[in-house]
Amino acid sequence: MIRCIIIEDEPLAAEKLSGFISKTDYLNLIGIFHSPIAALSFLKSNPVDLMFLDIEMKELTGIQLLESVKLDSKIIITSAYEKYALKGFELQVSDYLLKPITFDRFVKACDKVMNEILPAERSNLHRKVFIKTEYRLEGVDSSEILFVEGIGDYRKIITVKKTILTLQNFKEISSLLPQDKFRRVHNSFIVSLDKIDKIERKRIYIKDHIIPVSDSYYIDFINGLN
Description:
The protein is an alpha/beta fold. Helix content is 29%, strand content 34%. It has a five-stranded parallel β-sheet. Strands 10-9-8-12-11 form a five-stranded antiparallel β-sheet. A three-stranded antiparallel β-sheet has the order 13-14-15, with no helix packed on it.
């Protein structure tokens, strides 16, 4: 069981998270705190595996808490504002849930934490994938893929050695790739997280290529960087 607490100064938001936790078999809720100061006092003598942490609270913001105290537990930020996502990544949080939070998105974040706590269950190795091109299947090592770009009816798979053109759609290609190594960042792009050189103003730089990150994919993309 993963022992978790909620730090949330809005009672209704805390109640919603508590309900989600009660539906998730591997989570054990051991405390709800409307005050981050009270939570810090609790943490001094009670080990916790996972914290659901709100950002904008009166006594102490979630960001200030993370910056001021060394915590051994995993952190899932819960916020109504996407502007803190990049800061959350810098502070190495496990996930960033944007309110209003759906149960499906909640479970996805918690599954990610479970895999971090139990690394043996992770399946993050690169592998060879086979892409349909014209009348053949072309094998490519997924570790060599830089990004996938959609152009009209075609998808271009850009690798370190060559470019492969295919009619397979993004859903089909994504299903072939290691899920923790690649991320959809735009309706027209999937990128390899390992190949990113830098991120600036919602633009990804991979070698000589500049790839946009659309608003609808931004939060999941930032979470995937962890």
